[in-house]
Please model this.
Amino acid sequence: MIRLLPLLSLVVSCLGQNLLQNGDFELGTSGWEPCGGFHCEIVTDAHTGSKALKSSGRTQYYQGPAQIVQGLKQNSLYVVEAYVKLLTDDAGGQDVQATIAFTNEDNSIDYVKVAGRDKVLTKDGYVQLSANFRTPNRVFNRARFYIQGPVPGQEFVVDSTSLTAVAIVQVTGPGQNFLLNPDFEQGTVGWEPCWGFHCEIITDAHTGSKAMKASGRTQYYQGPTQIVQGLKQNSLYAVEAYVKLLTDKPGDVVGQNIEINFAFGFSDKTTAYIGVAGRSMVLTKDGYVKMTGDLVTPSKAFTSARFYFQGPIPGQEFAVDSTKITSLPESSDYLTTTNQVINQKRKSNINVKVTTAAGIDVNQLQIQINQVKKGFPFGTAVACDEYVSGDQRYQDFINAHFNWAVTENALKWGQMERQPGVLRNETAIAALKKLKSHGIKIRAHNMFWSVEKFVQPWVKALSPADLRKTVVNRIHTVMGQTQGLAEHWDVNNENLHGQYYQEKLQDRDFNLDLFRMAHQFDPKVKLFLNDYTVVAQGGFTGAYLAQALKFKNSNTGIYGIGVQCHFPANSAPNPTLIKAHLDTLAQAGLPIWVTELDVSNTDENERADWYETALRAFYGHPAVEGIMFWGFWSNRQSRGVPGSLVTGDEFRINPAGQRVLDLFENQWMTKESKIGTEAGQPFTVRGFHGEYEVKVIYNGKERNDLKQTFTLDPNDQTININVQ
Ligand SMILES: *[C@@H]1O[C@H](CO)[C@@H](O)[C@H](O)[C@H]1NC(C)=O
Model:
């Protein structure tokens, strides 16, 4: 696909016209309001030219030069500038600020601080107030500009004031970036003032020569912010930015979180906060890290959309650059695309060479090419106790319909070894043996769980040195007992969302070591990352790609990327987003397995549609190598009835179950029959990968001597049938 990106995403210029009349006081007080209740006079101590305005006799904080501004448009960008000099001091310095009072249609007034400086002293001389701001997104009848700030009694001089419109021509069309001045090459234009902390333009940039630095942060949520224009409700957008930490938490070797969020405002004054991208474990030495994610805008109308960075703990400084929000067109023909991939990737040609001896009447000949087993891994999470000694219908269903299984809980360290050295392993191992005896392959889940709340108390109580030894012992014990039974291991579950072992050991790369040790113990077992908010939702997709690449490039023996895919309750899988996320992860060049699929919807027919959408998106993506449900029977799956394929004590295969089985066992299996002249000459069947049986029927009777079986893999297969 060729994506057209505009060369310049925006063109910024100041229109130049100062909307303030007599902004430099060279015409005296003309254009400025009389100073009611305090005293104003023209003085010669000017910043530019020969005149400035002095305020004295002030009894209120808000007393200072004021002017009614004409021609301000709503929801538009302006640059404000003024120079202010204090003539009297107060201990510690004082505030000065430029404010605009907007009078609304209902006569209420909104006071908007547009620029400010704090801790100003007389010895600073003239200080500059300068900022960009956006006017309110509603009709206002009057705009009054004024300078205020020093406490009552203090005197100050003002000069060189200006208020100018910023003209930003945004290039629209494919690839349009919805952020203005996204790379800070135009300074702070388009970005919100950073109230309560400090933002400045720096030259340590990711692209071009400028970036924005945030410092003086006292809150987690403080970071560069822009009010984004033009986003539509209920639409998809891709979000990207580069972020660099400039300070590390003292003593922190593992790293901090950085996030990109949106706050949507609604007319009822409520706000919805949506996280769109996150990175964990970021340290200053990583330099600029890429953040990618996506945004699904609210389905109800919103009045404002605020894009902002947050994350490092208060006190930490960071820089941002190269920001981007582009629309993600919903693919209308995803079925065509996925069907093409399915045809190319999941099928091969079976070339059937039929010869018939003289005397064979082809009109009496029939050849059947029947797939008897799926090649593609379709699996489920298995509750080992139920499978070993529970409901027979549960066991039979697994044996009949799935060719892969993942242990739901029984192999987790916290379940298996609740007390040190006391292994509750009998059921798990019995389940693995039984699954294997039914030809079902096994994903073992999980060796370690990186999220602190899932680490059992006795492990948490270990000293770092003992923890290292215990971890090695766990690897050797559990891999030893499952050796030859499990094909896959999830090594350190959900490492994007927790770094327990790394933090406890103060060893940032211990997650890599866990893989290396496991790989060394048994190089034949395929090792996986396994995480969430990477495909069903996309906040950590970019972070996961970066993690996968790190594992791939660090000799860890990693085999694949596990994507959990627990779709949020009552939220339909979106094939455009699924494809975008899988495309991103596929850049790692590692196989992707869907490891824990479930949706949640009490409407069984809608649930059927949702599973079909998700399954088609996965099966129709070339990087996906296997798909596992996170259980199927409502009595034994974490999502219960709303996620189930089979419901209740009656073990009813519900519409979702019927739909899934129809895909697995009908639509995505091959059964072909040729009769008469068609059977008597060579023909080709494009078949799904898996095991096949070839039957020849002549004169209404099966010719057992001509029966054959074969396995169809990604290579085309030739079958010779010689009917005599
Ligand atoms: C369970 O663990 C114990 C202790 O390591 C071991 O002796 C036993 O063989 C294991 N059981 C199975 C079925 O692997």
User: Anything to note?
Assistant: The chain has a mean pLDDT of 94.
